[in-house]
User: Which sequence fits this backbone?
């Protein structure tokens, strides 16, 4: 059985895509079979792996009945496959809204193609619409990247409430997989304040590993490469590798909400 993790936060630009891409790559490098699913119409995960406007993609599967088995693409890592997104998914929420069991479309796709993977990571868009809902219904765990800034905690409680609602109405096995502090700046007082608050509230659900602000992480996507191909010795690469190791180690022990 694969471990299915949605990387979600309705707030934009907090490091969802960077985390999905880098963590999926790190897990693959560490020998895990990984499927990365891009469900964001911005398709940043897909282009971050050098795949743009590939067909068939998630849109073709969701709306044109394409075979999901034909939409798994090889990446530069033998153990990492990508199910790509496309800008066409913009506006699809309206088309999808008319479908039967519209919340379970991604779960059904994963049931068809997910069996042989150990980890399935889903990169969500910055909203709590139908696409993110599909990810939360398909997943077991939610990984929340959190930027340590003033409004982070407000956004976080909205997301936690959403997770609770999805758990109650659609997916009883859903739980908080972990909160990841991103773009971390240890010299910034506010960063430390937000960190201690989050750790006090969420305890063990907050990953020990934090992801520092690192310019190499922001450069890698424009080269169509994961950080481990672009600059494996960068602080960003090392942090995501440490996160992958932390996940492999403590995976079974994370608290449920
Ligand atoms: P969206 O909500 O638009 O999907 P996101 O949550 O997926 O955004 P990212 O795209 O991963 O966020 O990151 C936002 C921007 O910050 C990107 O330009 C990315 O390259 C950069 N970035 C992400 N993490 C870091 C980091 N640790 N250090 C420096 N830059 C980063
Ligand atoms: Mg993104």
Assistant:
């Amino acid at each position: 059985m694969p471990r299915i993790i949605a990387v979600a936060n309705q707030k934009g630009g907090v490091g969802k895509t960077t985390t999905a891409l880098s963590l999926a790559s790190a897990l693959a490098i560490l020998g895990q079979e990984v499927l990365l699913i891009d469900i964001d119409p911005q398709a940043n995960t897909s282009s971050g792996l050098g795949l743009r406007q590939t067909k068939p993609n998630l849109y073709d599967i969701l709306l044109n009945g394409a075979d999901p088995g034909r939409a798994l693409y090889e990446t530069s890592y033998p153990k990492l496959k990508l199910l790509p997104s496309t800008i066409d998914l913009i506006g699809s929420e309206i088309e999808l809204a008319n479908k039967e069991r519209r919340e379970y479309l991604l779960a059904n796709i994963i049931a068809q193609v997910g069996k042989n993977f150990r980890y399935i990571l889903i990169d969500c868009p910055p909203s709590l619409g139908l696409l993110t809902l599909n990810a939360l219904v398909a997943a077991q765990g939610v990984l929340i990247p959190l930027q340590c800034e003033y409004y982070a905690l407000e956004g976080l409680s909205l997301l936690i409430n959403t997770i609770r609602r999805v758990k109650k109405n659609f997916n009883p096995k859903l739980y908080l997989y972990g909160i990841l502090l991103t773009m971390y700046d240890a010299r910034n007082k506010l960063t430390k304040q937000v960190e201690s608050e989050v750790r006090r509230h969420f305890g063990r659900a907050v990953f020990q590993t934090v992801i520092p602000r690192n310019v190499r992480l922001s450069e890698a996507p424009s080269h169509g490469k994961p950080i481990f191909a672009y600059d494996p010795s960068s602080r960003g690469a090392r942090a995501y590798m440490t996160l992958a190791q932390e996940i492999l180690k403590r995976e079974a022990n994370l608290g449920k909400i």
Q: What stands out?
A: The pocket of adenosine-5'-triphosphate (ligand 1) is lined by residues 12-18, 40, 42, 44, 126, 182-183, 211, 213-214, 217-218, 221, 236 (CB under 6 Å). The radius of gyration is 17 Å. Strands lie at 3-7, 34-38, 73-74, 80-83, 119-123, 141-147, 175-182. The mean pLDDT is 94.
